[in-house]
């Protein structure tokens, strides 16, 4: 259900580290202070509350870069204290970004930060790359189940075209994961009226395939 993940001062729990087997690759952004004592970057987080057990953040980021099959990596030093690592060329053009901030603790690097990282701006820049890259949701979904969804973006009507003998269940979700429209297509397909929905990004589930839909004015 999620197109990308951005984490500030976070990590994986020991359980998720040992059991994580994502069904699809997903872009990841991690922002972390080297001097974070609440969620230590070296993986020494205590086990209280079900946490602890994941390794150094460097290894966690490498795990996600490998899951996304990234083939290109580069690093940049951002004055005053951020070492930025970028893994690119992954499946569906996915990327993994890692901003590791020297002399920084368990705090949000905001607009007044002199670390070289402004978390809110960086997260939006990262998410915007995913929004602008529709292939990051699914790999040619229409070829997998013979369903076509168009036009996209759309302001009023979306066509869901299926095999002539096939009926498909569909659900349109907003970005809070709330269903706003549900139904079953006719044989051959149906039109979905989104004219009353607010402008924004939606997820359309047709059977088991997910499509990103952009609703315009």
Describe this structure in words.
The chain has 217 residues and is of the alpha+beta class. It has a five-stranded mixed β-sheet, with helices on both faces. A four-stranded antiparallel β-sheet has the order 9-8-11-12, with no helix packed on it. A three-stranded antiparallel β-sheet has the order 6-7-10, with no helix packed on it. Strand 4 and strand 5 form a beta hairpin. The chain is elongated and about 60 Å long.
Task: Please outline the helices and strands.
Elements: E1 5-8, H1 14-19, E2 28-33, H2 57-67, E3 72-78, E4 82-88, E5 96-101, H3 119-131, H4 141-145, E6 148-150, E7 157-161, E8 169-173, E9 179-184, E10 189-193, E11 200-206, E12 209-215
Parallel strand pairs: 1-2, 2-5
Antiparallel strand pairs: 3-4, 4-5, 6-7, 7-10, 8-9, 8-11, 11-12
């Amino acid at each position: 259900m999620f197109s990308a993940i951005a984490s500030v001062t976070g990590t994986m729990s020991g359980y998720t580290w040992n059991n994580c087997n994502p069904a699809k690759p997903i872009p990841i952004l991690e922002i972390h202070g080297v001097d974070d004592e609440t969620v230590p970057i070296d993986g020494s987080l205590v086990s209280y509350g079900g946490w602890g057990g994941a390794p150094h953040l460097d290894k966690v980021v490498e795990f996600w870069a490998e899951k996304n099959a990234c083939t290109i990596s580069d690093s940049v030093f951002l004055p005053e204290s951020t070492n930025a690592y970028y893994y690119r060329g992954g499946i569906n053009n996915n990327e993994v970004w890692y901003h590791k901030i020297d002399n920084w603790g368990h705090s949000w690097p905001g607009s007044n930060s002199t670390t070289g990282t402004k978390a809110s701006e960086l997260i939006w820049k990262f998410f915007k790359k995913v929004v602008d890259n529709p292939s990051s949701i699914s790999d040619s979904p229409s070829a997998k189940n013979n369903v076509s969804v168009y036009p996209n973006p759309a302001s009023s009507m979306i066509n869901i075209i299926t095999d002539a003998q096939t009926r498909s269940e569909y659900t349109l979700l907003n970005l809070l994961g709330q269903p706003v429209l549900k139904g079953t297509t006719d044989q051959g397909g149906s039109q979905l009226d989104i004219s009353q929905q607010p402008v924004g990004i939606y997820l359309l589930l047709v059977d088991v395939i997910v499509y990103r839909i952009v609703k315009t004015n």
